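User: Predict the complex with magnesium ion.
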Amino acid sequence: MLNDIKEVLYSEAYIDSMVKRVGAEISHDYADKNLLLVSVLKGSVVFMADLMRAITIPARIDFMCVSSYGSGTKTSGVVKIIKDLDINLKGYDIVIVEDILDSGKTLHYLVNLLKSREPNSIEICTLFDKPERREVEVYAKYKGCDIPDAFIVGYGLDFDEKYRNLPFVGVLKPEVYGEV
Ligand SMILES: O=P(O)(O)OC[C@H]1O[C@H](OP(=O)(O)OP(=O)(O)O)[C@H](O)[C@@H]1O
Ligand SMILES: [Mg+2]
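Assistant: Here is the predicted structure with magnesium ion placed in the model:
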């Protein structure tokens, strides 16, 4: 698996520093609120596990599984809900936890869907943001860092369901995508 990596972009230590910073920001802002963290599976699974432990106030958690990239590197533009939330959102202050904001289509769809369920508030927390790729406007109040226009893997992020278990974030060699 490591042989497929062209370059490590973000080390475990750097990712940990971003997670701790964002966790402290959310802990401060939601101290007097009814926080529900909504993890968008599968990609945010690792970020969610670390972020929730960096949050020092009471927080409930729930999970949605959506997919729009399938086995490729480009969004299909169609967001498929594979597993919906269990919790009724009324009365909660929601923070949607994502691994990456790319075209914006997934989160644009999800925010509108979850708004219709009448929570107190909704904000977005994404570990990575690719502003150059945005196709629809989405505002992430909490963010690890902006990244260049490259397809990244690791720390939950996949290519064709692989590489999610890498502890760091990197880019694959072009030949792995079948591009030389
Ligand atoms: O801003 P966008 O262009 O919509 O891209 C972002 C979405 O793409 C990835 O999910 P994916 O569809 O790959 O499913 P996964 O989380 O199971 O990998 C990622 O986890 C985000 O949910
Ligand atoms: Mg994916």
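The mean pLDDT is 94.
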